[in-house]
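Query structure, 172 tokens:
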């Protein structure tokens, strides 16, 4: 799946919507191994907003943010983690500057692990987050890449008859 964007104004949440118009496909086959984390250092200390379950912006430190426990002395707390092996860099809008796509895993307690695709653009002060797209709960993302002005992602998600613990449907 690839989407092409040719103008800067198209960036933002609309860009992610176009780039990730993920269509389900039940083709057999083994997805490629996750790519190396060539861009992880760029986003390990960035700030993010618009994450489901997190009303305030979150600033990562070395790829993680962990909030205070919900109850004094408790062991349940909100957290955000960068999936360092799921980052990609490329020019999405043909302006000659790279954008960065990354995946964040979030939890607010309980058994759910939610995944978000985030887009950042390079600025003089480092990468700046500008768009977020909720991908799903308890999915397995196999690869993320930026190629030919589009975002390619392969994930495994729960099919119609799958329990949430054990997804089998390949989505590209």
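Result returned for the query:
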């Amino acid at each position: 799946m690839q989407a092409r964007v040719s103008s800067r104004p198209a960036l933002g949440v609309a860009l992610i919507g176009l780039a990730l118009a993920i269509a389900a496909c039940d083709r057999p086959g083994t997805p490629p191994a996750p790519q190396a984390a060539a861009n992880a250092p760029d986003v390990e200390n960035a700030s993010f907003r618009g994450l489901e379950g997190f009303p305030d912006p979150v600033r990562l430190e070395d790829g993680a943010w962990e909030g205070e426990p919900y109850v004094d002395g408790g062991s349940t707390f909100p957290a955000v983690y960068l999936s360092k092996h799921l980052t990609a860099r490329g020019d999405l809008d043909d302006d000659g500057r790279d954008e960065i796509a990354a995946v964040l895993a979030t939890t607010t307690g309980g058994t759910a692990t939610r995944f978000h695709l985030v887009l950042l653009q390079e600025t003089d002060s480092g990468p700046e987050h500008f768009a977020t797209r909720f991908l799903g709960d308890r999915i397995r993302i196999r690869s993320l890449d930026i190629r030919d002005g589009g975002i390619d992602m392969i994930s495994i998600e729960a099919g119609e008859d799958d329990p949430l613990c054990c997804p089998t449907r390949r989505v590209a």
